[in-house]
Design a protein that fits this description.
2 helices, alpha+beta, globular, two-stranded antiparallel ribbon, binds FE2/S2 (inorganic) cluster, 26% strand, 102 residues, 13% helix
């Protein structure tokens, strides 16, 4: 279990390519996914189902669920995942359309 801030590892790690809503991003390999996406400029991770309000990571420890993204066919907390080469990530309500594009 890592105990350092997820933001400390962003500078040194080699970059790998991932896709967020179909757009390529170069993120630090093995970094915390939520921290890496925030550092790359992603500000909206999901929208609330009732009001459609934008949400982004808040707690960074798996408690708030504001960082939910779809990856690997599942909706998961980005702050609980590590960046891996080739990841395809999507905002949950937009996942179906992005994956339909191929
Ligand atoms: S940022 Fe709160 S659960 Fe991920």
């Amino acid at each position: 279990m890592k105990t350092d801030s997820p933001f400390l590892e962003l500078e040194a790690a080699p970059r790998v390519r991932v896709w967020f809503d179909g757009q390529p991003l170069e993120l630090p390999d093995g970094a915390n996914l939520a921290a890496a996406l925030l550092a790359a400029g992603v500000r909206t991770f999901r929208h609330t189902p009732v009001s459609g309000a934008p949400r982004a990571p808040f707690c960074m420890m798996g408690a708030c669920y504001d960082c939910l993204v779809e990856t690997g066919g599942r909706v998961q907390q980005a702050c609980m995942l590590e960046v891996k080469d080739g990841m395809r990530i999507a905002r949950p309500h937009e996942a179906e359309a992005v994956h339909a594009e191929g």
